[in-house]
């Protein structure tokens, strides 16, 4: 489903990614972990075309990210995203849905709001939402697009324990999606992911979850 070959990226001659190779199968939930500055954001942004592809190749769903069409099969939820505070939750969903298609599917919008437990708050302005509710609204919008590949960048950042668990439960329910999730929280990774891609010194090593849990903690500290 996702194939990264010989991916390299450098900033001012400092190589951040060094011939990275990673294969992610359909319906895997793969955590992307590494210390601060290891290159997680660089890798994600290169996959999404937000940074230029300096060396190597990236295909998602069999489509190169340098060609048209790949955006139709990938959804991305950044760590920080912007919604319209003067609109309600449902109005935000309708607005962003209209950017993807001329016809807005209200049945799907209501279904996704229910999935993230926001059906009773959909008519409230999002200025009244907690950070956890805003994060769930972002997930609902991403799920509306129904892309087979989902990329999440620190999806629980800044949330309290209850909000974090709500987000993790939603992610765990996405059993028919291929997911890459950047995270610093090992307990979250163990809870929701099937595999781990550990990025260190520009190289990446992929583990099954069982393999990852058997590696010395110092070697896999994110």
Would you write up a description of this structure?
- With 222 residues, this protein is α/β, with parallel strands linked by helices.
- 31% of the residues lie in helices and 27% in strands.
- It has seven helices and ten strands.
- The strands form two sheets. Strands 6-7-8-3-9-10 form a six-stranded mixed sheet, sandwiched between helices.
- Helix 5 links the parallel strand 7 and strand 8.
- The chain is globular.
- The two termini are 25 Å apart.
- 34% of the residues are buried.
What secondary-structure arrangement, pairings included, does this model have?
Layout: E1 2-11, E2 14-24, E3 29-33, H1 40-47, E4 55-60, E5 63-64, E6 74-77, H2 89-100, H3 106-115, H4 131-144, E7 149-153, H5 161-172, E8 178-182, H6 186-192, E9 195-200, E10 203-208, H7 209-214
Parallel strand pairs: 3-8, 3-9, 6-7, 7-8
Antiparallel strand pairs: 1-2, 1-4, 4-5, 9-10
Helix pairs in contact: 2-4, 3-4, 4-5
Keywords:
7 helices; alpha/beta; 222 residues; single chain; globular
* Shape call: globular
Strand and helix order:
EEEHEEEHHHEHEHEEH
Mean pLDDT: 90
Biggest sheet descriptor: 6 strands, mixed
Would you count the extended β strands for me?
10
Strand order of the largest sheet: 6-7-8-3-9-10
Gap from first CA to last CA: 25 Å
Helical region count? 7
Protein structure class:
alpha/beta
Roughly how many Å is the radius of gyration?
A: 18 Å
Oligomerization category of the chains in this entry: single chain
Low-pLDDT segments, ≥5 res: none
Helix content: 25-40%
How much strand content do the residues show? 25-35%
């Amino acid at each position: 489903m996702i194939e990264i070959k010989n991916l390299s990226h450098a900033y001012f001659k400092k190589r951040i990614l060094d011939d990275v190779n990673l294969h992610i199968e359909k319906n895997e939930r793969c955590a992307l972990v590494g210390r601060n500055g290891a290159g997680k954001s660089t890798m994600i942004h290169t996959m999404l075309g937000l940074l230029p592809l300096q060396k190597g190749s990236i295909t998602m769903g069999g489509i190169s990210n340098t060609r048209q069409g790949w955006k139709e099969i990938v959804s991305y939820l950044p760590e920080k995203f912007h919604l319209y505070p003067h609109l309600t939750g449902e109005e935000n969903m309708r607005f962003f849905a209209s950017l993807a298609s001329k016809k807005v599917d209200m049945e799907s919008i209501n279904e996704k709001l229910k999935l993230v437990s926001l059906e009773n708050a959909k008519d409230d302005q999002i200025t009244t939402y907690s950070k956890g509710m805003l994060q769930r609204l972002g997930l609902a919008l991403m799920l509306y697009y129904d892309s087979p590949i989902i990329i999440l960048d620190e999806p629980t950042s800044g949330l309290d324990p209850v909000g974090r668990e709500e987000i993790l439960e939603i992610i765990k329910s996405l059993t028919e999606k291929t997911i890459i999730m950047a995270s610093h929280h090992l307990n979250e990774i163990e809870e929701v992911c099937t595999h781990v891609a550990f990025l260190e010194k520009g190289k990446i090593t992929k583990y099954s979850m069982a393999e990852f849990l058997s590696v010395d903690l110092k070697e896999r500290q994110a």
